[in-house]
Specification:
Blueprint: E1 9-13, H1 18-29, E2 33-38, H2 41-53, E3 57-62, H3 68-82, E4 87-90, H4 105-133, E5 136-141, H5 154-174, E6 179-186, H6 192-197, H7 200-209, H8 218-229, E7 240-243
Helix pairs in contact: 1-8, 3-4, 4-5
Bound molecules: nicotinamide-adenine-dinucleotide (NAD).
Nicotinamide-adenine-dinucleotide binds near residues 16, 66 and 143.
């Protein structure tokens, strides 16, 4: 196999669809052998079969990242097939969009349990194997919601902010084992999660707040993941790579029209500095 990830064994959690599936496809294109792990077993199997049909190497594993026993079984299955693990993309996650005052403890626990505790458990189990194998690459999929205080993002944003800090600690502690640990923080990306969670007003607001004026694609996150998992990123450590069309960078953009109110006709672009 040739490619930037030739013959690496790569695990992508939440790989049945969306960003995870795009990452798996990009890694297969770069020569990696894929493990697609997802709570949606049928989805993981379909994704794995799709990669194989396209000439890639892939296996599917059912996992619930919130369940340590399920993670242990996943790692065992990977080792039984490949004997080692070189790359982890910690991507499995669930969205959340509930106002702070209405966030119930069970919602909080579910979102933290999958997006933060789940990522911790998977990373720890995989890093132990990478230590044994003499090195590896871990990419955690965080979010711009972990950096900016958006409406309704109490649990989801706290989980993603926690994941960013966890990444830094892992980078510090795992450097001596030859393991690079970095984050990708996607902005608004066109996936099922976004289609479900973003209503018309949210989409209009993003269109206004993102300098590049559009949602990103899963493939644009996948390309960043290939870079971070390749040898080209060997000195990138504990970093958060925002892939967000400039959302985080932006401040006052007074030459833009304000977003239309939900249900209203779009506001025409002004030439004299429409203010937000
Ligand atoms: N789409 C966006 O705009 C966006 C923005 C920032 C960050 N993210 C993050 O990117 C990652 C992927 O998001 P996406 O948009 O592709 O979402 P998605 O909902 O399309 O895909 C998520 C995948 O994770 C799987 N999953 C959910 N819970 C799981 C569990 N407990 N165990 C194993 N697998 C589980 C789902 O079955 C699904 O296949 C998530 O961590 C998300 O928080 C997404």
């Amino acid at each position: 196999m040739t490619g930037r990830l030739a013959d690496k064994v790569a695990l992508v959690t939440g790989g049945a669809r969306g960003i995870g599936l795009a990452v798996a496809r990009a890694f297969a294109r770069e020569g990696a052998a894929l493990v697609i792990a997802d709570v949606n077993r049928a989805g993981a199997e379909a994704a794995s079969a799709g990669l194989a049909e396209a000439g890639g190497r892939a296996m599917a594993v059912a996992v619930d990242v919130a369940d340590p026993a399920s993670i242990a079984a996943m790692v065992e299955a990977i080792l039984a097939r490949h004997g080692r693990l070189d790359i982890l993309v910690n991507n499995a996650g669930v969205g959340g969009n509930t106002p702070f005052l209405e966030t119930r403890l069970e919602d909080w626990n579910r979102i933290i349990g999958i997006n933060l505790t789940g990522a911790f458990l998977v990373a720890q189990a995989c890093a132990r194997e990478m230590v044994r194998g003499g090195g590896g690459k871990i990419v955690n999929i965080a979010s711009l919601s972990g950096q900016r205080g958006g409406d309704g993002r109490a649990a989801y944003g706290a989980a993603k902010a926690g994941l960013e800090l966890l990444t830094k600690v892992m980078a510090v502690e795992l450097s001596e084992h030859g393991i690079n640990v970095n984050n990708i923080a996607p902005g608004a990306i066109e996936t099922e999660m976004a289609r479900f969670a973003h209503d018309a007003a949210t989409r209009a607001a993003y269109g206004y707040l993102i300098p590049m004026t559009r949602y990103g694609t899963p493939e644009e996150i996948a390309d960043a993941a290939v870079f971070l998992c390749s040898d080209e990123a060997r000195y990138v450590q504990g970093h958060t790579l925002n892939v967000d069309g400039g959302f985080r960078a932006a401040g006052l953009m007074f030459k833009r029209a304000a977003p239309p109110a939900a249900g209203a006709a779009p506001t025409p672009t002004t030439t004299n500095g429409g203010t937000p």
